């Protein structure tokens, strides 16, 4: 690897249902990294939670035979070093004599490109690890990631900011378990059918169901609790258009992309996991997929049928982009996000639906028609990550005074030791 490039740790996989989708997104981004500036170092989080690195992990075709791939890969752990760097350190069992036969391999990482969807990769968990290890990373921080992952809290924050959301009711599992009938009454009285039930912190339409009767509602809520300990029940918008907008930037400046209107297959009301990721190439519909990904990986989110730019008036487009940028700042985002809206066609009302702080395919298919190539997008992500890291490290974080020095401790009873 060239020595004057930055080592970009590309995190992919993850312990989440969107594991494979993440592999595609992250490898698309790795392929878009300018090799004169960056050297991608894959960090694959297997479904069992173990971590690997190694060049073969950058090749999407190799994922067809995972056992063979992991045999060739190097199992690693992340290790902090002073001054905002981390390294991947080879993780090996000790030999027969209780010692390693050679020192473990180490690979320095300058910045982490987080390409995980759902679970701890997107909900602030991995972001927290990067913060703790003080390495720059390309996503929204711990707070915004956790907030964005939570459909209940997201909507509460929007309500507080005056951004419309559909009527909803939320339950914690503990509340629900003891007051099922009351809970069902609340949904019926405060909203009424048809309803949509969702686990609060999942994605990819997992655990989402529509309910038209009390029995269906009861079953849908029970089912949603299999995925999460918190469930949201919303009014189903029957005549609905979905409109999404990506936003790129940080607290200093944020730019909205063109809008997209995704299209579910057939007449399904809900975009399913299959719609999003497992669609056969049928040659129909407007595709947003770009050239860059084609040689790197299957298209992932980019293969979904969609209209880009969404057919809306200029005024409407501007207004939605403005709300998207407001939301980006409200959620304290950084890097690239995708904000999903719904328009209720009966009333023409726009609603915030959800924010994806690590959007499928990094939303590159919305940036290309906005004049930002995929290469430029990932370059900007790395720059934003490094700037945030510099700013963070420029703030006071520790004091040089040792409060545990002998002088400071004089007279303090610790209750332990020789006191
Ligand atoms: N309140 C609603 N009314 C009608 N359809 C909805 C509603 N909420 C979600 N949907 C449909 O379900 C899909 C998935 O819901 P969403 O909230 O985006 O969850 P996910 O995080 O799983 O993508 C949406 O893309 C939309 O098609
Ligand atoms: Mg969604």
What does this structure look like?
The chain is of the alpha+beta class. The protein folds into 3 domains: 6-138, Rossmann fold (3-Layer(aba) Sandwich), CATH 3.40.50.20; 148-163 and 238-391, ATP-grasp fold, B domain (D-amino Acid Aminotransferase, Chain A, domain 1, 2-Layer Sandwich); 168-235, Dna Ligase, domain 1, CATH 3.30.1490. Helices cover 32% and strands 24% of the residues. The chain is built from 15 helices and 16 strands. It has helices spanning 19-32, 66-72, 119-122, 125-132, 142-149, 151-161, 173-178, 180-190, 214-224, 273-277, 291-294, 314-330, 364-367, 374-393, 406-409, and strands at residues 6-13, 38-45, 51-53, 74-81, 85-90, 106-109, 111-114, 168-172, 195-199, 209-211, 230-235, 240-249, 254-262, 306-307, 335-344, 349-356. The strands form 3 sheets. A 7-stranded mixed beta sheet has the order 6-5-4-3-2-1-7, sandwiched between helices. Helix 1 links the parallel strand 1 (6-13) and strand 2 (38-45). The longest helix is centred in the last third of the chain and has 20 residues, at 374-393. The radius of gyration is 23 Å and the shape is globular. The structure holds adenosine-5'-diphosphate and magnesium ion (MG). The site of adenosine-5'-diphosphate has 20 residues, from strand 9, strand 11, strand 12 and strand 16.
């Amino acid at each position: 690897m060239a020595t004057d490039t930055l080592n970009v740790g590309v995190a992919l996989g993850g312990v989440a249902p969107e594991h494979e989708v993440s592999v595609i997104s992250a490898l698309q981004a790795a392929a878009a990294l300018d090799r004169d500036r960056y050297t991608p170092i894959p960090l694959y989080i297997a479904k069992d939670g173990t971590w690997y690195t190694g060049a073969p992990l950058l090749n999407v075709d190799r994922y067809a035979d995972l056992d063979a791939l992991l045999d060739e890969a190097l199992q690693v752990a992340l290790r902090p070093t002073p001054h905002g760097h981390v390294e991947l350190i080879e993780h090996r069992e000790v030999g027969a004599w209780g010692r390693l036969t050679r020192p473990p391999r180490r690979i320095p990482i300058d910045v982490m490109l987080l390409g995980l969807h759902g679970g701890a990769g997107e909900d602030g968990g991995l972001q927290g690890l990067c913060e703790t290890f003080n390495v720059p990373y390309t996503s929204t921080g711990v707070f915004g990631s956790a907030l964005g992952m939570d459909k209940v809290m997201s909507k509460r924050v929007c309500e507080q900011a005056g951004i419309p959301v559909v009527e909803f009711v939320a339950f914690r599992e503990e509340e629900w378990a003891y007051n099922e009938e009351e809970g069902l009454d609340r949904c019926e009285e405060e909203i009424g059918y048809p309803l949509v039930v969702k686990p609060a912190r999942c994605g990819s339409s997992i655990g989402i169901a529509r309910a038209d009767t009390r029995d269906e509602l009861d079953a849908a809520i029970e089912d949603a609790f299999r995925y999460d300990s918190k469930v949201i029940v919303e009014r189903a918008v029957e005549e609905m258009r979905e409109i999404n907008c990506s936003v790129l930037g940080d607290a200093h400046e944020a730019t909205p992309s063109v809008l997209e209107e995704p299209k579910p297959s057939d007449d399904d009301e809900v975009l399913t996991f299959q719609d999003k990721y497992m669609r056969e190439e049928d040659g129909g519909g407007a595709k947003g997929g770009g050239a860059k990904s084609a040689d790197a990986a299957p298209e992932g989110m980019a293969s979904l049928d969609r209209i880009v730019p969404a057919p809306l008036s200029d005024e409407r487009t501007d207004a939605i982009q403005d709300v998207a940028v407001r939301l980006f700042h409200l959620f304290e985002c950084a890097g690239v996000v995708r904000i999903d809206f719904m328009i209720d066609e009966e009333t023409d009302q726009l609603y915030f639906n959800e924010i994806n702080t690590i959007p499928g395919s990094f939303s590159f298919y919305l940036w290309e028609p906005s004049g930002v190539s995929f290469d430029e997008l990932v370059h900007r992500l790395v720059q934003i990550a490094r700037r945030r890291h510099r700013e963070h490290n420029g703030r006071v974080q520790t004091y040089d005074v040792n409060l545990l020095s002998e002088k400071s401790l004089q007279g303090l009873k610790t209750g332990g030791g020789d006191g």
